[in-house]
Amino acid sequence: MKKTTLDWIALILLVIGGLNWLLIGVFQWNLVDAIFGAASVVSSIVYILVGVSALYTIYYLTKN
Predict the structure, then answer these.
(1) Residue 64: what pLDDT?
(2) What confidence category does residue 25 fall into, taking pLDDT thresholds of 50, 70 and 90?
(3) Which residues contact 23 (CB under 8 A, 6 or more apart)?
(4) What is the 3-state secondary structure (H, E, C) of the chain?
(5) pLDDT at position 1
(6) What is the mean pLDDT of residues 5-21?
(7) Residue 30: what are its φ and ψ, rounded to 5°?
(8) What is the rounded distance in angstroms from the CA atom of residue 10 to the CA atom of residue 50?
(9) Domain parsing of the chain, residue ranges
(10) Alpha-carbon span 25 to 7, nearest angstrom
(11) How far is the C-alpha of 30 from the C-alpha of 64, rounded, in Å?
(12) pLDDT by residue (tens digit) across 29-56?
């Protein structure tokens, strides 16, 4: 199945989210908060986009 632009965006956001969790787990350092500020609106938007990407990926994997 050919991947669309939305599929690639979701994949990239999931990789970013996964790497951020790796940094939190290993070094107790949150990259998103370091870049955008802790509890900022932009940080919240990034977390929301990563979560929506996860939901979309679940849909993508089960749509066959």
Answers:
(1) 67
(2) very high
(3) 29, 30, 31
(4) CCCCHHHHHHHHHHHHHHHHHHHHHHHCCCHHHHHHCCCCHHHHHHHHHHHHHHHHHHHHHHCC
(5) 72
(6) 95
(7) -100, 110
(8) 8
(9) 5-62
(10) 27
(11) 36
(12) 999 999 999 889 999 999 999 999 999 9
Global confidence as pTM: 0.84
**Rounded distance, CA 40 to CA 26, Å?**
23
Cα–Cα distance measured from residue 43 to residue 59, given in angstroms and rounded to the nearest whole number: 25
**At residue 2, does pLDDT exceed 90?**
no
d(CA 54, CA 17): 10
Residue with structure tokens 């940094």? 23
**Rounded distance, CA 10 to CA 26, Å?**
24
